[in-house]
Each structure stands twice: as structure tokens, then as C-alpha cells.
Design brief:
Radius of gyration: 18 Å
Largest sheet: 3 strands, antiparallel
Helix content: 25-40%
Shape: elongated
Number of helices: 3
Number of strands: 5
Strand order of the largest sheet: 4-3-5
Distance between the termini: 48 Å
Structural class: alpha+beta
Strand content: 15-25%
């Protein structure tokens, strides 16, 4: 069986209303905080659609157990917690929009 060329794959995707993109793949490093607790940090964040990048979201309980109903406004770039939510969101953590 013959594999399709990149040109053929691109044409098939275009016919389906899609495109082939090359996107950076983040790598992760485990960092230890001042109290000795480990956490994982990506070296880059993936792109998000505008609606998700500027949404109001709620984190899952396992990430925000002390205030599970809190909504974070991702347009508020100055608040440290909101920056953390954007990091989780870009890394694929499931967040609830609304």
C-alpha cells in the first residue's frame, strides 16, 4: 500500500474544511517549590481560540477545592490566580466555561 504524499494529505484535509498545522509541543519540567512540594511547569503554552483565552471559567474541584464556585475572568491579566488558570487551560486541564 502506498502512503499519501504531504500534498495529497493537505488536499484531503482542505476538502474537509481543515488544514495541516505544525504546532510546538510543550515539554514539562518538575520544579520543587519553597516548601518542598513538586509541581510541573510547561516550557511553553499552546494557543487557545480567542473565546477560550478570554473566557470566564471555573476550575475543577481538585485544583480549586477551597473555593470551588469561584469564577476566573481570564481578561484580567493582572491577577496571579487568573494567570494560573490560563496555564492550566493551555496545558489541557478541563475547565468549565461560564
Amino acid at each position: 500500500m502506498k502512503s499519501p504524499t504531504l500534498e495529497t494529505a493537505t488536499r484531503l484535509l482542505a476538502a474537509a474544511g481543515l488544514r495541516l498545522d505544525a504546532v510546538p509541543v510543550p515539554s514539562f519540567e518538575v520544579v520543587v517549590d519553597g516548601r518542598g512540594g513538586p509541581f510541573t511547569v510547561p516550557d511553553r503554552l499552546s494557543r487557545l481560540p480567542i473565546r477560550q483565552a478570554l473566557a470566564r471559567v471555573r476550575l475543577p474541584v481538585h485544583l480549586n477545592w477551597s473555593d470551588p464556585d469561584r469564577t476566573y475572568d481570564l481578561t484580567d491579566r493582572g491577577h496571579p490566580a487568573d494567570r494560573g488558570v490560563r496555564t492550566h487551560q493551555a496545558c489541557g486541564t478541563r475547565v468549565r466555561f461560564g
